[in-house]
Amino acid sequence: MSEIQNTKQYDLEERTFLFAKNVRSFVRKLPRTIANIEDGKQLINASGSVGANYIEANESFSKKDFVFRIKICRKEAKESRYWLRLVFIDNSTELEKEREKLVQEATELTNIFGAIIQKSK
User: Fold this and answer.
1) Given this model, what pLDDT does residue 121 score?
2) pTM (2 decimals)?
3) Are 6 and 58 in contact (CB under 8 A)?
4) Domain regions of the chain by residue span
5) Which of 5, 24, 60, 99 has its CA 20 to 30 A from that of 105?
């Protein structure tokens, strides 16, 4: 998790990449339940989509397309937070701490993308 802290204010593309990478690490540690397998897939998809859409936004051909992609980034960050809150951690304090950090990062990313949308109007 410390990887996120070192890059927070410098490179949003790298930050979204590290978020997706850290989510994948977290999902590998979850108890293997049917619900976690399905929710984990959703979480992995949403977290990866944040960064992928940010890359797309930076390559957009118009301001309208840029704002559209950033809105998707915000939506996927919110969705990541939802799935993070939903997964079962079986009362593991280590997993709970990791989840809290990831939820915090998803929330911060949501806020950053919201601010970008506001500034783009």
Assistant:
1) 83
2) 0.90
3) no
4) 2-120
5) 60
Nearest to 80 by CA among 48, 37, 46: 46
Cα–Cα distances in angstroms (integers) from residue 111 to residues 16, 39, 45, 47, in the given order: 13, 23, 20, 15
- Decide if 88 contacts 33 (C-beta within 8 A): yes
Two tokens at 12?
Answer: 């949003």
Look at residue 21 in the predicted model and tell me its pLDDT: 98
Predicted pLDDT at 7: 41
| Residue length of the chain | 121
Count CA within 13 A, CB hemisphere, residue 117. Answer: 16
Residue for token pair 């293997």: 32
Among 87, 97, 103, smallest CA distance to 42 is for 87
Within the chain, which residues score under 70 in pLDDT?
A: 1-10
* CATH architecture of the domain covering 2-120: Up-down Bundle (1.20)
Residue 74 makes CB contacts below 8 A (sequence gap 6+) with 109, 110, 113, 114, 117
Tokens describing residue 23: 């989510």
Distance CA 88, CA 74 (A): 24
